[in-house]
Design brief:
Blueprint: E1 2-7, E2 12-19, E3 27-35, H1 37-41, H2 48-70, E4 79-85, H3 89-106, E5 110-114, H4 115-126, E6 133-138, E7 143-150, E8 153-159, H5 165-175, H6 182-190, H7 215-232, H8 237-267, E9 275-279, H9 286-298, E10 302-304, H10 308-311, H11 316-327
Parallel strand pairs: 1-4, 4-5, 6-9, 9-10
Antiparallel strand pairs: 1-2, 2-3, 6-7, 7-8
Helix pairs in contact: 2-3, 4-11, 5-6, 5-7, 5-8, 6-8, 7-8, 8-9
Bound molecules: adenosine-5'-triphosphate and fe (iii) ion.
Subcellular location: Cytoplasm
InterPro entries: ATPase_NBD (IPR043129), Gcp-like_dom (IPR000905), KAE1/TsaD (IPR017861), TsaD (IPR022450)
GO molecular function, one term: tRNA N(6)-L-threonylcarbamoyladenine synthase activity
Length: about 350
């Protein structure tokens, strides 16, 4: 089975070819990601209109590159998978329209994939793991614990009630005058910092359950920065490093403790081999990765973190999720709609433990 995947929901135009023969592991034949960071740099964030135009301009060439890198042509594909949401609607539309054109032109089945399902199924692309497993999806726009029971069967155990951590990293970088995207620059600064010098809150840890909050952290950072500037007239590089280290440690502590709770819920009903996996751009953070790994080890679960290139937005995950949907007979037709919002979960934690 060979699937062409397309992704254009945020600021990366991506196309990939994934192939799986029988019961062999799936193989990424090609994966092209054309980023747009430079286009948005002057604006301090992704501008939807600019993103949509860039996707529309580049998606064809991206598909061509993916096919040629795989050494295959459209007629070698079995189906076309495309991100149909959630995301910036102009970009999603550009991808869906392109996929529809290819589907009609080549007479291939069309499969609409939920972008979050793409992230959530990534560990099955890289490792042999069975359902159900626990996934922490932590990115620029999302933060949630998902019990992944099947290609189209997700239970949300909890998540952020305000900002996503990636967003908080990006805002922190902006407040401290560091380059975007904020995650990598804050992480680099934090390497030389003392995480204990400034006190940051650990929101919602006193409350039961797996919900999280990150907007207070951002406010705490803003206040501390302003206090330092008031007292000393500016920030030294040591102050900046210490602020980054304190902020990053607070995010990592909250994620680790809430992961412990989510694991407890999952383990109450777990299969023989319990798996904790993580995906999304923030999963690239090495402190967060290592804390999650310790929590998994402590609770007897296997920790699986996909390689960084598959944690951030890419089309291989969309092609792979499309492949699982194809196998399950979940194909779409030309009425496939582009959706700005598309929640993955349809059930609540109340279902856990009760007759599944
Ligand atoms: P979504 O998938 O929710 O639509 P997105 O596409 O913006 O959002 P990703 O591409 O998965 O998200 O991740 C980008 C986010 O990850 C950015 O907010 C970025 O700052 C953050 N990030 C990247 N690297 C790191 C890192 N090393 N540490 C912390 N955060 C990071
Ligand atoms: Fe994403």
């Amino acid at each position: 089975l060979t699937i062409l995947g397309l992704e254009s929901s945020c600021d990366d135009t991506a196309a990939a070819v994934v192939r799986q023969r029988g019961t062999q592991p799936a193989e990424i034949m090609s994966s092209i990601v054309l980023g747009q960071t430079e286009l948005h740099a002057a604006f301090g964030g992704v501008v939807p209109e600019i993103a949509a135009r860039a996707h529309a301009e580049k998606i064809d060439i991206c598909v061509k590159q993916a096919l040629s890198q795989a050494g295959l042509s459209l007629s070698d594909m079995d189906a076309i998978a495309v991100t149909a949401g959630p995301g910036l609607i102009g970009g999603v539309l550009a991808g869906v329209m392109c996929a529809k054109g290819l589907s009609v032109g080549a007479g291939l089945p069309l499969i609409g994939v939920n972008h979050l399902a793409g992230h959530a199924l990534t560990p099955r692309l890289t490792e042999r793991i069975d359902y159900p497993y626990l996934m922490l999806l932590v990115s620029g726009g999302h933060c949630q614990f998902l019990l992944v029971r099947g290609v189209d069967d997700f239970t949300r155990l909890g998540g952020t009630i305000d900002d996503a951590p990636g967003e908080a990293f990006d805002k922190t970088a902006r407040l401290l005058g560091l380059p975007q995207p904020g995650g990598p620059s804050v992480e680099a600064e934090a390497r030389n910092g003392d995480p204990a010098r400034y006190a940051f809150p650990r929101p919602l840890l006193d409350r039961e359950g797996c919900d999280m909050s990150f907007s207070g952290l951002k406010t705490a950072l803003l206040r501390t920065r302003d206090r330092i500037v008031d007292e000393k007239g500016g920030l030294t590089s040591v102050d900046r490093a210490d602020l980054c280290a304190g902020f990053q440690m607070a995010v990592a502590d909250v994620l680790a403790e809430k992961t412990r709770r989510a694991l407890r819920l999952y383990l109450a009903d777990a299969p023989a081999v319990a798996v904790l996996s993580v995906a999304g751009g923030v999963a690239a953070n090495s402190l967060i990765r290592s804390k999650l790994e310790s929590v998994a080890a402590e609770m007897g679960a296997l920790f699986i973190a996909p390689p960084l290139s598959l944690c951030t937005d890419n089309a291989a995950m969309i092609a792979y999720a499309g492949m699982e949907k194809y196998r399950a007979g979940l194909c779409d037709d030309l009425t496939l709609a582009a959706r700005p919002r598309w929640p993955l979960d349809r059930s609540s934690p109340a279902l856990l433990g009760s007759g599944k």
